[in-house]
Design goal:
oxidoreductase; Pyridox_Oxase_N; 170 residues; Pnp Oxidase, Chain A; alpha+beta; twelve-stranded antiparallel β-sheet
Length: 170
């Protein structure tokens, strides 16, 4: 499936080994698709940061996550929809860490939510089955709002050799 390409790619020489090349966005997309855990960073109304692990689905050039409407991350999004999502490895000398910056936009179209619910179940198993009702996922824990984050800026931190690639999107 074709994906949206960045408008610019930049290898930051300050943080990259002299032999490193900029990473390709086409190589990052499968990593975003396959990663099981992401860390979502939001900002509380008083300005303090909030970070939490969650599950995501990569679809149509965006990362999607769900959350109960009374959870801290959703309450934070009511005041500030700017977020950062990170994933990667906990190793020093191998792998890639990815950072996605963008705006969390609530998805409420029931047809699209059914697509995303099916993707969650395929990726994470039947324990993550969701029905869709009234613009939200409905599961064992009750209703959950769904948000999509289309990258505005993304980073890849490669570890062998070390490099930092920044992608900008229109």
């Amino acid at each position: 499936m074709a994906h949206k390409e960045p408008t610019s790619t930049h290898l930051d020489d300050r943080y990259s080994h002299p032999t490193a090349d900029a990473e390709n966005w086409a190589d990052a997309v499968p990593r975003l698709t396959e990663a099981e855990i992401f860390w979502l960073s939001t900002v509380r109304p008083d300005g303090r940061p909030h970070v939490t692990p969650l599950l995501t689905i990569w679809s149509r050039d965006a990362l999607y996550f769900s959350s109960g409407e009374r959870e801290r991350k959703v309450m934070n999004l009511q005041d500030n929809r700017e977020v950062v999502l990170t994933t990667g490895t906990n190793t020093l000398n191998e792998g890639h860490d990815l950072v996605i910056e963008g705006e969390a936009v609530q998805e409420s179209d029931d047809a699209r939510l059914r697509e995303l619910a099916a993707m969650y179940e395929r990726k994470y198993g039947s324990v993550w089955h969701f029905d869709v009702k009234d613009g939200a996922f409905v599961g064992a824990g009750g209703p959950a709002l769904v948000f999509g984050v289309t990258p505005r800026t993304a980073f890849c931190f490669a570890k062998s050799p070390y490099s930092q690639t920044r992608w900008q999107f229109a």
